[in-house]
Specification:
Blueprint: H1 2-20, H2 27-55, H3 58-61, E1 63-73, H4 79-89, E2 93-98, E3 104-111, H5 112-124, E4 131-143, E5 151-153
């Protein structure tokens, strides 16, 4: 009698398996696995989408170079030292130096957004004791890579 029940049970499970294409009691596990796979794919696609968006932002990926000259009380007030410090903070490359006519000249190279930030710093901030009358920017152009390895003060 027990062997007949066991045979009957096996036939019933075999029929269920053939009808549903899944072994018995595994439907729930496969569904959870499928959900995990879908979730992982969504996370990966979201990350790739965000990365692509960041890399295609034109102001972030363009490198530019520009020459500058700052007029006013900019010598003897640590203007070059503060300019170098701010340039390094912004990950810019280039240089600055005093001129014989009392100005500070230099070159900025880096991402367009960081160069713009530095241009505003040169216009409106400078060193604490400086008095900026005007700033001229010349020869701004897109560059493929920086010419300088760091931001230096020239003597």
């Amino acid at each position: 009698m027990e062997s007949r029940l066991a045979t009957s049970s096996r036939i019933r499970h075999a029929t269920t398996y053939a009808d549903s294409d899944f072994p018995p009691n595994n439907n729930r596990i496969l569904t959870k696995l499928e959900l995990k796979i879908v979730f992982c794919l969504l996370v990966v696609l979201s990350f790739l989408s965000a990365t692509t968006t960041l890399n295609t932002n034109p102001t972030m990926s363009k490198l530019v170079g520009v020459d500058f000259e700052v007029y006013g009380r900019v010598q003897g007030v640590f203007f070059r030292k503060y300019t170098q410090k701010r340039g390094i903070e912004l990950d810019l490359k280039g240089w600055c130096m005093n001129t014989d006519n009392g100005t500070v000249v230099g070159r900025l190279e880096g991402s367009k957004s960081k160069v713009e930030e530095m241009k505003n710093w040169l216009r409106y901030t400078g060193s604490p004791q400086s008095a900026i009358d005007k700033v001229e920017f010349r020869n701004e152009q897109e560059i493929s890579q920086p010419t300088f390895a760091s931001f230096e003060i020239k003597k």
